[in-house]
Amino acid sequence: MADKAEKRELLSSYRAKRRTDGTTEPFGGALPAASGGPLRFVIHHHAARNTHFDLRLEMEGVLRSWAVPKGPSPNVADKRFAALVEDHPLEYGDFEGKIPDGNYGAGWSIVWDRGIWHPTGDPIEGLRDGKLLFELDGQKLHGTWTLVRMKSGEKDWLFIKEYDDQASEAGTDDYPMNSVFSGLSIDDLEAGYNPAQDILKRLGKARVPLARIEQPKPMLARSGDPFDRKGWIFEIKYDGYRLLCEKNGDDVTLHSRNGNDLSATFPEITQAVARLPYESIIIDGEAVVHDLFGMPSFARM
Ligand code: MN
Fold first, then answer.
1. Furthest C-alpha separation in the chain
2. What domains appear along the chain, each with residue ranges and CATH number?
3. Ligand 1 centroid to 106 CA: how many Å?
4. Ligand 1 center from residue 100 Cα (angstroms)
5. Which residues on neighbouring strands pair with residue 244, listed in sequence order?
């Protein structure tokens, strides 16, 4: 493990490129802090001077980063050039937004994918020796991938899908291009698209300025005879936690069926709801965890 001085060194290059008064990007704490949990990965889609993807793998308390101009491909024949760039702070994994003109990397950046990565062997040694083999367990990327350093230079790497049941003939364009948080793509953001506008127009006068839940009382399922009638849709009775999500501006509260505040119990959901491109909204849903067969499993909650 790197000592304190070395760890401080890890982010010095990152900080040297940015001005605290110029950008909303995070600068990281005084020392990088390891998350302590499973190792996180994130892929940003970043419309800087040239639009590219940034692959970031948590290592030694920072996000080790590669800029991948053409993006990840599930096709094992696509060997994607990946330039090793400066380490980023762990908090950068949540960053989305527009880096203002005149700043380093100016342009929109979204969290295109994120999840957990599982290195095969010691990743620090792998980085030094120029070969990292790992599994990605993300929302878009899955299965085994590799990063291999080329002979042409220290910072020149290739990002390649390995053969497994997640490999396919598809390309980068076959992945959804949206943010895993807001659902908006770089193109949407650049075009100023606001999905709330159509809904607000349809609501017209029925619109209330703030969506507030005073007494959470979700509609509950009742047993009855099976029927099929026009105007009805049917859904599975999921076995999880009923959640009423309330978002007003940056304030998000998750209410349980009995009115308990579950915001801290499901931080990923709270964060995801906070990033939805709606100013004031209530979402009624069920939080479920799937088992290996894709069935909701209450025991796994
Ligand atoms: Mn970038």
1. 70
2. 4-191 (no CATH), 199-300 (3.30.470.30)
3. 9
4. 14
5. 255, 284
pLDDT band at residue 1, thresholds of 50, 70 and 90?
Answer: very low
Cα–ligand 1 centroid distance for 75 (angstroms): 23
Residue with the larger pLDDT of the pair 151 and 22: 151
Question: Which residues fall within 8 angstroms of residue 298, CB to CB, at 6 or more apart?
Answer: 239, 240
Task: Output the pLDDT for position 187.
Answer: 95
53 CA distance to ligand 1 centroid (A)? 6
**Residue bearing tokens 């024949």:** 77
What share of the chain in percent tops pLDDT 90? 61
Q: Which residue has the tokens 């010691």?
A: 122
Block residue for tokens 């910072």: 155
Phi and psi for 8 in degrees, rounded to 5? -65, -35
Q: Percentage of the chain surpassing pLDDT 70? A: 94
Evaluate whether 245 touches 301 at the Cβ level (below 8 Å): no
In this structure, what token pair is assigned to residue 42? 């994130």
Cα–Cα distance between 55 and 44 in angstroms, integer?
7
pTM passes above 0.90: no
Q: What does the H/E/C string look like for 214-246?
A: CCCCCCCCCCCCCCCCCCCCCCCCCCCEEEEEE
Q: Contact at 8 Å (CB) between 62 and 34?
A: no
What is residue 223's predicted lDDT score, i.e. its pLDDT?
86
Stretch (H or E) spanning 265? none
107-119 and 97-99 as β-strands: parallel, antiparallel, unpaired?
A: antiparallel
Question: Which ranges of the chain does DSSP label H, i.e. alpha helix?
Answer: 4-10, 12-16, 123-129, 186-190, 196-203, 267-274
Cα 129 to averaged position of ligand 1 atoms, centre (Å):
24
End-to-end CA distance of the chain: 34
Residue positions annotated with a catalytic role: 237
Dig out the tokens for 25 from the structure. 């990007």
Bridge-based pairing of strands 156-161 and 241-248 is unpaired
